[in-house]
Amino acid sequence: MKDRITAGFIAGFTGGIAMNIFDWIVNAFYGQKEYLYSWASVVIYGRIPNNTWEIVFSQIGQLFFTGILGIIFAYYLLKLTSGNYLFKGWIYGILVWFGIYALSIILRLPTLSTHSAVTVTSHFLGSSLYGLLLGEMLHQLSKRELL
């Protein structure tokens, strides 16, 4: 795919879907209440969502954000060699996770400045999954000549 913005967004959005499915499963299994959409909700509403519509809108916002992160990664790869795309994607996913966690603590975002070990581990693994899928999807899309 010739269009880096489109390819990056598709790869990021796809990785975001997988990351959120993982997040929903872990939250259901461990009874945690800090979903990835909670982060988008705090940014959008300044609080955790109160109803189904706010959850849906926050989830869409979070997925849109993962698409934007995919665009940034697609352009980041232009500066580097094209090899080791899975490793680069994984490192990028972890770097973004760490940066967002650090910002939430520094800015003292409501309900997001302290986290349980299960939540931190879950989000680390979800970010790892996101980065790996982002790298693989971008690699696959770059091989196609659709746009």
- Low-pLDDT residue spans: none
Q: Helicity range of the residues?
A: over 70%
Discrete helix count: 5
The figure for the number of domains is: 1
* Computed Rg: 15 Å
Q: Which structural class matches the secondary elements?
A: mainly alpha
Give helix and strand order, one letter per element, not per position. Answer: HHHHH
Number of strands: 0
Mean pLDDT over the residues:
89
The largest sheet, given as strand count, sense and whether it forms a barrel, is: none
What is the overall silhouette? Answer: globular
How big a fraction of the residues is strand?
A: under 5%
**Alpha carbon gap, first and last residue:** 5 Å
Topology:
Layout: H1 4-30, H2 36-45, H3 52-78, H4 85-106, H5 117-143
Helix pairs in contact: 1-3, 1-5, 2-3, 4-5
Characterize the structure shown.
This protein has helices at 4-30, 36-45, 52-78, 85-106, 117-143. With 147 residues, the chain is mainly α. It has one domain (4-143). Helix 1 (4-30) crosses helix 3 (52-78) and helix 2 packs across helix 3. It is globular. The N and C termini lie close together (5 Å). The model has no long low-confidence stretch (mean pLDDT 89).
